[in-house]
User: What shape does this take?
Amino acid sequence: MPDRYAVIGNPVVHSKSPLIHAEFARQTAQDIVYVRLPVPKRSFRIELDRFMAHGGRGLNITVPFKEEAAAACTQLSERAKFAQAANTLTLAEGKVIGDNTDGAGMLRDLENNLHIAVHGRRVLLMGAGGAARGVLMPLIARGARLVVIANRDMRKARELEQRFGLFGNVRARAYNDLGGSAFDLIINATSASLQGMVPPLPGTVFAQDCVAYDLVYAAGGTTPFLDRARDCGAAITSDGLGMLVEQAAESFFIWRGVRPDTRPVLDMLRSAGA
Ligand code: NDP
Assistant: This one.
């Protein structure tokens, strides 16, 4: 019997994770099946227990269950503790071991695929939800000179400033206080692009040679934020498809102990119009 894995979320019908993990498994000759598990909003725990009872070996967790998943874990990695969210669960002998591969996935995409270093950069991180929390500590650990967090709900941004400011130069700012500041790397960790919207950024925040990165991925590789960034002179723009594949590879490595080659999978998704 192949080992069983799944992605849990709501909605999950459009998730590319089964395709990505099937490719990884084929490439590395691992005998697994990986399916989508759509779960009603209040039924996460029930589905987790059911999947475990049927011998499931691991789960990826997506919106809106990452926080609930972290709370359900018997053990959490350091990066999941910092993020207060888990996107990768390993299930073994009744234990649920949680990790968060979002930050590692984004860094691998920036560094290995796009050849962009974070060290010494002034970073603007838009958003203060689960994804922003997942990438914040890895940005600090990589030596970002400054990380400014901008969010509509400033209470959430200030909370992150307080918690992560112990480890690096982290500031919370309202969008309308960003005039006069310029950044080398601007990361959109909001879901605004999914609504066809752009966070209310002044055009002056894009420094010369600025890199604009959107966690959201979209057909054709562009999003409303990336369009705006190009209009404002950003030198490099990228959506989050690379991050999606890289965070999946990190999950696959946790589960199977083998690191797949992400490049052909990313190329396949791009040429399929993702
Ligand atoms: P959350 O729901 O936890 O947070 C959403 C964030 O977006 C909040 O900070 C919210 O601000 C902000 N926001 C929503 N709409 C707008 C808007 N119109 N203008 C400005 N800000 C807005 O979501 P996540 O943090 O989990 O995910 C964020 C995005 O990242 C999602 O679109 C998700 O698909 C993507 N993602 C991509 C990954 C990848 O591998 N490529 C991995 C993980 C996430 P406020 O608090 O003020 O409401």
